[in-house]
Write a structure and sequence with these properties.
With 303 residues, this protein is mainly α. It has a domain of 178 residues. Helix content is 66%, strand content 0%. The N and C termini lie far apart (88 Å).
Length: 303
Amino acid sequence: MNLRRSKQLADSATIVGLVGAVAVIIYAVTTSSGVGIFFDLPSFLIVIVGSSFIVLIKFNARQFLQAWANAFHVFFLPQEDPQDIITTIIRLQQKARVHGLLSLEDEPIDQPFLKYGIKYVFANISPIIIKNTLNKEVYYTLERHQSGARVFRALANVGPAMGMIGTLIGLVQMLAALDSPAKIGPSMSIALLTTLYGALLANMVATPIADKLMLRSQEEYLLNMLIVDGLLGLQEGLHPYILEEMLLSYLPASQRVGGRWKARPMPEADLTPEKKPPPPQKAPTETQQKPLPSQDNHSNLGL
């Protein structure tokens, strides 16, 4: 049984937000006296390159490079559909109830964490050990993925600070060149552009990417916890209907497809007096069951 993997789709919210923000900035720049005045190499080096080096001090090289690799995930939606995983777990449970847990060994499973965890179910290990082992795997996976978000959060904090440093450098150069009016303009441009670059880096790049990576990490965490509960339900032999209701609680109410134990309101037509079932008749008492002697019986007795 192959777990259907959804085609990876682009995250329209990320793309529209990024394109819209860049378009607004470009429009504001092009309507001014010229675009070239907003580009300054010393300011770029101070803010962008300098901030990257400062963040590299806080993390190791692997974490820093992995964070930029994870940044591309913000442009795509999660690949696994939780509803498909729930359906797969329920089918596995239905098969296990009929043929046993060992019959699931031949089932091809594509989802990595489900494939990793189901081997513990085959081994008939204690549910407590399975739960502790899988919870550790979920925790450390969450920790590794959130390190990328922390890198961009640090970049968002360092960027404006480096912009302020560039501003101070520009002001010092400007004050030192008060006797040379030709040097005041370039020094002032460094002072202002570094602040601009720092604000753009923090608010248009680093902070949005950090927040979206945290969102992706939280979605993956909930998906993995869904799989953990599903595997524990397989191990304990829960009824498929009960297991399905338990796993559907991970989804918003609007996305829940299935569920056999939903409360169904009684139709109004069934509430009319004509369709109400008759009241149950009471069983006859012992005195009602014993017939009274008739007159013929009295005459037969000579009374």
